[in-house]
Fold:
Amino acid sequence: MNRALVVIDVQESFRRLPDWHLASQPDIVGQVNRLVDLARAQDDLVVWVLGARAGSGTVFDPALGHVRLMDGLDPAADEPVLVKSAHNAFTTTNLHQLLTRRGVRELTVCGIKTEQCCETTTRVAADLGFDVTFAIDATATCPIPDPSGGPSLGVADIIERTRYALSGRFATVRTVGELTGAAVR
Structure:
């Protein structure tokens, strides 16, 4: 096993946010499960990561009960579930050590939010020497308000910007169909 699927922040917290109805990929659970099925079929490691902000009083505060995987996601008993408090999945967890111990050199990244935790994890992973595939349609984001009061940046623009920023620099960007289709050939 030298590959791993890293599922980032696909958690109920996001469904509690007021803008979740504007999410780019409302069926993210279905897309993630396609990647999980592929990873398990190939005997790849699946790592689940949850984002938490203890004591924040927000939907990311574990005390409120929303820091848990979205309904429909079911980690196997031997699949690690890590909890992070940083934007990337490495800084506040033992993810790097876990992957290194298992000889993992290739990662597929998916989850929520496309441009935030998923992209940041991808960049850090590339800096650490991992070969990263970014499953762009197994990520989700919501519009980002303009801090200057102008129009929000829409989800299509966010996803396209992420594709441009990561492709050929930090990751190979693929769709779930490309990844699952390549596996069955």
The longest helix spans residues 28-41. The chain is about 30% helix and 20% strand. The chain has a mean pLDDT of 96. The CA atoms of residues 69 and 114 lie 17 Å apart.
